[in-house]
Specification:
4 domains; about 45% helix; 18 strands; globular; Fumarase C, Chain B, domain 1; Rossmann fold; 26 helices
């Protein structure tokens, strides 16, 4: 049966036991929760109200919001957590629906500019010495051949191109060197085409980073990235507080200054406006950046910074030299005759860097927490909003009449209070849809009583003994997840010689490569941290055990966490119960959510932190998790694996 646009039925006609999806899909299973969610999304779009839906794993939430979005007749942005989820929606779910509609569905997807090829850079590279080494030349040749037939310019189409290709970074379409409508390739540009497709679409699929980049610049002179839209669906909405904090804040680094200097040197040679004066100013710029950013220490990690006044008294000269070096750069650029289109983005970058450094050093806005981070040779100066709820309310929930937030992890002890207060969306309708899985039969939640407190010196050694015992029982096939890189590496070193199964370590290869190896390697064990706690899908026996070292409380000394806790305390709240526990409960749900991904999956969830059974607050975690069968008895674990 093919459906025409003139006879689009309501969501219930799609999701009922004998509905359209049951006719279209040979393996369709009626799920009451999916139908309930689809009707709630449909009602929210029709009534122009905000909605929050926690949809347990296996609900089928993607189609439950995508079908009502298509049926609504409104221009809707669907935002996902990752580019992989974007591609799944656009390349799998939309084509499935499209084959049953008589008219083309007006759906597109948009990614950040770094995902697209810049034709102007490609043509320039063919005639200018832009590439270094045989690897870059080989990658360039692959990109050049692909560019002759691609319709989108999206690098995801080149499956053989290495994830860390340096040739691609020299050819992508990021804004830093884009001259916009002045570019000779503007009409053919893949970014231009992407925007044209979005203007013609009813449903636009983006990721959270692009969405919040757009919201952050909506009020600036050059406007937003996305076309105007009237409703928004946020999938994996539990992530948006941190992402919003990044985009509504500010980051400036020595890398940004050095990239500006390198790009300006390259453009000046290509466009033949290089001069001795420009060269001197570029050297001064790099020297000033080295001195200024070197003042913030060499120790790795994140640190709060509240000593602006004393810093300026002691190092005011180095600070002024940094600003003056940027001013000289844009003065030289302004004096170049016959303005070249490539100069304008460089000029904008110099001024933006100048403004960002001044804001970070001289602003005393109490709504931000100021902090520094050293990663290798990079020094990052950051200002992050302490409370994003007011910003989200102003820039999102008050601008749009319909925002739908969904995730498998939004409630804490069956309450939406935490997410509503953190995101500034009180009064929204809420819906909790239980998972379709039989957790009592499929999963066993094990907490060993005998281990010491995770904060004690002897914890790591005894935890490693327990991990070894669990891996023997599960015959590998496990994720071992840690709350810190230090603990992960220490456990890996202790266990690598004892465990007979293939061990994989986060950081040893790109994330997608590690996941592919895990899926393909019998009895593999992956040691990983937070980036593997969510968005990872390994159904089947290959993943039969998830081990988590401790309750995932945010580090209280982290500058952003510390500032948010202080803000809650000063507002009369209790930061431990109002912030740390709810945040950790949602994170634990995400980690455990890696294990049961289908009705046939079985496995053990092991938490090596027995504070969950010894401390009063542990009940909040139990009340937030699905109804797993629970045990403290090792013999129950052995029985489970030997069924």
């Amino acid at each position: 049966m093919r459906v025409s646009a003139a006879q689009l039925p309501p969501a219930r006609a799609f999701f009922s036991p004998r509905g359209l999806l049951s006719q279209w899909h040979p393996h369709f299973e009626f799920r009451a929760g999916q139908a309930e969610m689809a009707e709630a999304v449909e009602a929210a779009l029709q009534e122009r109200r905000h909605l929050i839906v926690e949809a347990g794993t296996g609900t089928g939430k993607t189609l439950a919001y995508l079908v009502p979005a298509i049926l609504s007749g409104r221009r809707i942005v669907v935002s996902t957590a990752t580019k992989n989820l974007q591609e799944q929606l656009f390349l799998k779910d939309v084509p499935f629906l499209q084959q049953h509609f008589s008219q083309p569905l007006r759906v597109c997807y948009m990614k950040g500019r770094a995902n697209y090829l810049c034709l102007q850079k490609l043509f320039a590279a063919e005639s200018a010495p832009l590439l270094d080494g045989l690897e870059e030349m080989a990658d360039f040749e692959q990109i050049r051949r692909w560019a002759q037939h691609t319709e989108t310019g999206d690098r995801a189409e080149i499956s053989q191109l290495p994830e860390d290709s340096t040739a691609w970074t020299k050819l992508d379409a990021r804004r830093e060197r884009c001259s916009g409508q002045r570019c000779p390739q503007f009409e053919r540009c893949f970014i231009t085409r992407m925007h044209q497709r979005a203007q013609e679409s009813d449903v636009i699929i983006v990721n959270h980073h692009l969405l919040f980049a757009d919201l952050a610049v909506k009020d600036e002179d050059f406007g937003g990235i996305l076309p105007e839209y009237t409703a928004l669906i946020l999938d994996e909405a539990h992530e948006i507080e941190d992402i919003a904090g990044n985009y509504f804040g500010l980051t400036v680094s020595n890398y940004q200054v050095l990239d500006l200097a390198q790009d300006l040197a390259a453009v000046s040679r290509q466009k033949q406006f290089a001069s001795a004066e420009l060269e001197r100013n570029l050297v001064r710029l790099q020297e000033s950046a080295d001195r200024f950013f070197g003042l913030f220490g060499e120790a790795e990690g994140r640190r709060g910074f509240d000593q602006h006044d004393s810093f300026l008294r002691q190092y005011g000269q180095q600070y002024e030299e940094m600003l003056a070096a940027l001013e000289r750069i844009w003065t030289v650029l302004e004096l170049i005759p016959n303005t070249i289109e490539e100069i304008l983005p460089l000029l904008r970058r110099a001024r933006d860097l100048h403004s960002a450094i001044r804001f970070w050093m001289e602003s005393r806005d109490g709504k931000f927490v100021y902090w520094t981070e050293r990663r290798g040779r990079g020094c990052f100066l950051q200002a992050t909003p302490i409370d994003v709820s007011e910003l989200l309310r102003e820039k999102l929930f008050e601008r749009l009449d319909t925002v739908i937030l969904t995730s498998a992890t939004l409630t804490v002890a069956s309450s939406f209070d935490y997410v509503q207060s953190r995101l500034g969306i009180p009064g929204a309708r809420t819906l909790e849809v239980a998972s379709q899985f039989d957790y009592q039969r499929q999963a066993l939640f094990y907490v060993p009583e005998h281990l010491p407190d995770p904060r004690s010196p002897g914890f790591l050694e005894q935890a490693c003994q327990e991990i070894w015992r669990l891996l023997r029982a599960s015959r590998g096939r496990a994720f071992v997840l840690f709350t810190s890189y230090q603990q992960m590496r220490a456990a890996y070193e202790r266990l690598s010689a004892r465990v007979d199964f293939p061990l994989l370590l986060q950081g040893a290869a790109p994330r997608h490569t590690l996941l592919e190896k895990f899926r393909e390697t019998p009895h593999a064990v992956l040691f990983a941290t937070s980036s593997f706690w969510q968005g990872v899908d390994v159904p089947g026996e290959q993943l039969s055990c998830v081990i988590i070292d401790r309750l995932p409380f945010a580090v209280p000394t982290d500058p952003v966490v510390e500032a948010r806790m202080r803000f809650i305390r000063e507002s009369g709240g209790n930061p431990f119960y109002d912030y740390q526990i709810p945040q950790a409960a949602i994170a634990l749900k995400q980690g455990f959510g890696r294990l049961i991904r289908s009705r046939s999956d079985r496995g053990v969830l092991a938490l090596l932190d027995n504070r969950i059974i010894k401390q009063r607050y542990g009940q909040v975690f139990f009340d937030s998790l699905p109804s797993y069968r629970f045990t403290r008895d090792w013999t129950e674990v052995e029985k489970f694996f030997h069924v």
